[in-house]
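Example record

One chain of 371 residues, shown exactly as stored in the release files.
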Amino acid sequence: MHKWDTVASLAAFAIAIGLGAIGFAVYDVCCSGDGTTTSKPVVRTEAGKKKATGQWSASAPGRVEPKFGEVKVTATVPGRIVNVLARTGDKVSAGDVLILLDDREPRARIRAAETLVRMLKKARDSEPQVARDVKDRREQQDRLFDAERSLFRARERLDKAVIDRREGRGSGDIARARDDVADGERRVVSERAALKKFEDDTGLPAPSKLESDLVTARAQLSLAETAFDHTRVRAPNDGTVLRMIARKGETAVPSPENLLVILGDLTGLRIRAELDERDIKKVRVGQRTMIRADAFPGREFEGRVARVAPALLPAQLGAKGPRRPTDVDVLEIFVDVTGQSELRAGMRVDVFFRSDATVGTEQSKRKTASN
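Predicted structure tokens for this chain:
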């Protein structure tokens, strides 16, 4: 029995020593020499696993985005998709038609409203003995109405030119059509301001019943044209189609979950990085950065901090799967990539923020070399 007691005591002692060694190793990894925890964030890509030296004040994982982020486009009215005019990778201009929805109903409403407007205008103009100021008001209203119709027709011509070009049916002058739309928009603004000024400066009598009916019919026509325009899903700004989701025959629904197309301006790139909250004081606007990506081993890309978010958010770029941490808060840092880059939107990268000492040393070296 004494022999077995001795063996058991030695085994327990060995286990205790092993546990102590493991605990010391974990403490040595997680804590600095002065007993404080380090604030280096975990880098999540292979390129970021290289040990950062003293030239970096902090590092953070990030994702490459277009210059001004992604623009997610949805329909403004429900409708069946009858044509998809753009493909992933196409370059588009602001106002270009990307998707056509079924427009039979608004077209019918436009025809009915136009017929009613013509009939009421003819009846109004046939009224005898109209006062001069009332006649002037009618002329101002007619000029505004004509300007609005001209703008609608100019937009139709532009849409037709863009559609024909994308479907290979013609080579209409798209630039001239865009100029016509811009001129039409300026004319509408001018005529609307002139009518308002005339009505404000002149003490006019109340409009007659025919005048009121005509104004109402014209408003109904404008509503029908607006409904027609909503069947055209347009590019909100210049950019590139990053992803075309819509398919011919599907039903578009005005919902944030029912995206039709995603656009982005690829004339420049930025990084949306997630900085550990313990490193907030180490990053500032204008700070230089170095960017690494697994797709380009051994390559480094330059950047500069453009914007720092005002509030913390839950991390979005952490490890995937059921073990993904959900209680980690990060600060979003937006880094502009310097010059043209081979990086692609959607890539995961690691961003290293240069310390002030490193920047000062590099500036001194350049100054010495120039001398």
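Notes: The chain has four domains: 1-38, 39-68+265-370, 70-93+242-264, 94-241.
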